[in-house]
Design brief:
The structure holds two protein chains of two kinds.
Chain A (H helix, E strand, L loop, with lengths): L1 H14 L2 H20 L8 E8 L2 H14 L6 E7 L2 E9 L3 E6 L2 H11 L2 E7 L5 E6 L6 H10 L4 H10 L14 H4 L1 H27 L1 H6 L5 H28 L5 H25 L3 H23 L12 H13 L5 H29 L3
Parallel strand pairs in A: 1-4, 1-5
Antiparallel strand pairs in A: 2-3, 3-4, 5-6
Chain B lengths: L1 E8 L9 E8 L4 E5 L6 H8 L7 E6 L2 E2 L11 E4 L11 H9 L9 H7 L15 H11 L7 E5 L7 H16 L3 E6 L2 H7 L2 E6 L2 E6 L1 H8 L3 E8 L2 E8 L3 H13 L1 E8 L3 H9 L5
Parallel strand pairs in B: 3-8, 3-9, 6-7, 7-8
Antiparallel strand pairs in B: 1-2, 1-4, 4-5, 9-10, 11-12, 11-13
Helix pairs in contact in B: 3-4
The chains are: A alpha/beta, B alpha/beta.
């Protein structure tokens, strides 16, 4: 019963607190950003400026091949402003490329330089040999530069034939493709739903320490774990509410909400226990600032890795937020691996429980210090 | 009700003790004053007794419970009024008391009755955050009685209160004494201690210098003081000197022989003067 009274009291106080509204505002802000700022799918169209430096007949043939891919099969004559100069171009728009055909190499260089995009000169000598000159921006990867170097060692017809001859077999079809918008959700849910609680719970405890309330609690017949758990429960409720604010409008009926609830509770408990432990080692938020900052940077790294598919160092697997992100990913995709999520939930519950025991022991020692 | 034997406490966990070798016993129904200047070790001792600080060295029992292996049940029997008000500002006065009443396993007192006792009954439904400092202090004081404590720890219970309210608080302490509540009163206000305490302990630099009743202390020191006002080098000088200590007696003789006496009379020493006499220190 004491736990219940502490919990209802904490819930009442939290509903009147600054931090609670910060969490709600943050959740609404995330929702607005995801719905109105992040597109359903990121635009992957590339822009290229191309000069065809070749006899008219050859140029016409190449332009014809470009037009085959154009969305409406026609050029669009237009002008691009570079500083105060208007450069005439012809636009060919395909599904994944915007190709601007320019008149001379000087214009090409100006456009590639000012628009920070790829420029290419396709030359044909008198013998009919084709050569390519690329204007790069300097930040392209060595892989891309090497690709440009090797791609033109054979003529395009040979390359295309080789591509056509290659057999591509799909080993697994048991996956779901999610939109780019939905793909941002796992990291957002990790921070809003689970990890935000870590800082908020520490803030609540520091506030109690500053106001001396914790001392008054310490001389009652209630136990430290009841005090800590009541705060954890409030944080969990807040996480559920804010996660619902974000997920329901975005995911609608496509997510496994029961699984999400289980995962949210377990990861929220784990994160709250870290927050409780953190608050046991410091007297105030100011003194804990360095530790909080290091922790924040550490838990942010897996989110960065999540958005850079080619970068996933092995040590990232030692950071819990990596697994929270991967767990949420499984939760939000249709047919996600529920077994994996439940296993992670169990691990986070056990880890959270151990951390909670440690935090309880530590707080018992220095709750009022 | 409270037994303390050879209590030591160091915040830095070395030999820089905030409390050194403190020993005393407090009987049931007694009001025991723990007196000393700021930083003397009063709050540290009280902290150990209430379990707010870990017992490092020594033996302490409170209401029969060994503080070394503190039990939550002990807190059903103790009440603690803090010097710094620490109530939930976003809850009303009544909600504060109702919440705390639920954290004990014993029969608790009616929150409204307690608020009435300390003179803020009509403010029961007002948020504590809107209270003045004095009202918050009274709410903190009222909260300390919510569980009908048999041992009551009071830390500067009248500090910051106007004289009328302070008198009410003193009356409540007297009433509780009639109910055989044991009171551990920490203060640097010697007048309060003089009025309320059955016995007082003087603590300075973590060491208890003396434990006795205010009455005995006055008998021992009071009648043997003489206040002298005299003119020295054209300036009036006022001194309080003992009539039994050799050093003071010689000084009295010297003053009488040498200077022009303006007033001279024996008097009953205040507890503050006795404290200064015994410890060589003031109370600030």
């Amino acid at each position: 019963m004491k736990l219940w009274y502490s919990f209802t009291k904490e819930l009442k106080l939290a509903s009147k607190s600054f931090y609670f509204y910060i969490e709600l505002i943050f959740a609404v802000l995330i929702l607005v950003i995801v719905l109105f700022v992040i597109p359903e799918n990121f635009n992957s169209t590339t822009t290229e400026y191309v000069l065809l430096d070749m006899p008219d007949s050859a140029a016409a043939a190449m332009e014809e091949s470009f037009l085959d891919e154009d969305l409406d099969g026609k050029y669009e004559n237009t002008e691009i402003k570079v500083k105060k100069e208007m450069i005439p171009v012809r636009l060919i728009e395909t599904e994944d490329r915007m190709v601007y055909l320019v008149e001379n190499e000087d214009d090409l260089e100006k456009l590639a330089d000012s628009k920070k995009q790829l420029g290419a000169v396709i030359r044909m000598d008198e013998s009919g040999n084709i050569s390519y000159t690329y204007y790069l921006q300097g930040y392209e990867t060595e892989r891309l530069k090497n690709l440009y170097k090797v791609i033109h060692n054979s003529d395009m017809a040979t390359l295309e034939a080789a591509l056509d001859d290659q057999e591509v077999r799909t080993i697994s079809t048991d996956y779901t493709v999610v939109s780019d918008r939905v793909n941002t959700m796992p990291s957002l849910l990790t921070f809003n739903g689970s990890l935000m609680g870590m800082f908020i719970i520490a803030a609540y405890i520091f506030l109690d320490k500053e106001q001396g309330i914790i001392k008054a609690y310490a001389v009652t017949a209630s136990t430290v774990w009841q005090y800590l758990l009541s705060k954890t429960l409030v944080i969990t409720i807040t996480a559920i509410v804010t996660t619902a604010i974000i997920t329901i409008p975005i995911l609608g009926g496509s997510a496994n909400y029961l699984l999400m609830l289980v995962f949210l509770i377990s990861t929220g408990f784990f994160a709250s226990s870290i927050g409780l432990l953190l608050s046991a080692f410091f007297d105030s938020m100011n003194k804990a600032f360095n530790a909080i900052f290091i922790l924040m940077v550490m838990i942010l790294v897996p989110a960065i890795a999540y958005f850079i598919p080619g970068w996933e160092p092995f040590w990232i697997k030692f950071i819990p937020s990596h697994y929270i992100i991967t767990g949420f990913r499984e939760v939000i995709v249709k047919g996600g691996d529920a077994g994996y999520v439940l296993l992670l939930s169990l691990c986070f519950l056990v880890g959270g429980f151990l951390l909670f025991i440690w935090a309880n022991a530590r707080h018992k020692k220095c709750l009022t210090a | 009700m409270i037994t303390v034997k050879n209590l030591y406490h160091s915040y830095s966990k070395d030999d820089k003790y905030a409390v050194k070798d403190a020993s005393f016993e407090i009987e049931k129904g007694e009001i025991f004053g723990f007196l000393g200047p700021s930083g003397a070790g009063k709050s540290t001792t009280q902290g150990v007794l209430t379990g707010l600080l870990q017992l490092q060295k020594g033996e302490v029992t409170v209401a029969g419970y060994d503080v070394k292996k503190i039990s939550n049940k002990m807190f059903n029997q103790i009440g603690m009024s803090f010097e710094q008000s620490n109530v939930y500002n976003k809850m009303t006065a009544k909600e504060n008391l109702v919440f705390y009443s639920r954290l004990f396993d014993v029969e608790t007192r009616d929150p409204q009755e307690l608020l009435d006792m300390v003179g803020i009954g009509d403010k029961a439904d007002i948020k504590a955050g809107e209270f003045s400092k004095g009202m918050k202090h009274r709410l903190t004081f009222a909260r300390s009685m919510i569980n009908n404590p048999t041992i009551w720890f009071l830390d500067e219970p009248t500090t910051g209160l106007d004289p009328a309210i302070a008198a009410t608080i003193k009356d409540i302490i007297w009433e509780e004494k009639k109910q055989e509540v044991t009171t551990f009163l920490t203060t640097h206000n010697m007048f309060i201690a003089d009025e309320l305490c059955d016995r007082v302990a003087f603590i300075v630099d973590g060491e208890i210098k003396l434990i006795d009743s205010p009455k005995n202390l006055k008998l021992q020191y009071g009648a043997k003081l003489v206040d002298i006002e005299y003119i020295k080098d054209g300036e009036p000088v006022k001194e309080s000197l003992s009539t039994i200590e050799d050093k003071d007696r010689k000084k009295i003789k010297e003053i009488l022989d040498t200077y022009e006496i303006q007033t001279m009379h024996t008097k009953e020493a205040t507890l503050e003067e006795i404290f200064i006499k015994v410890t060589g220190r003031g109370l600030v």
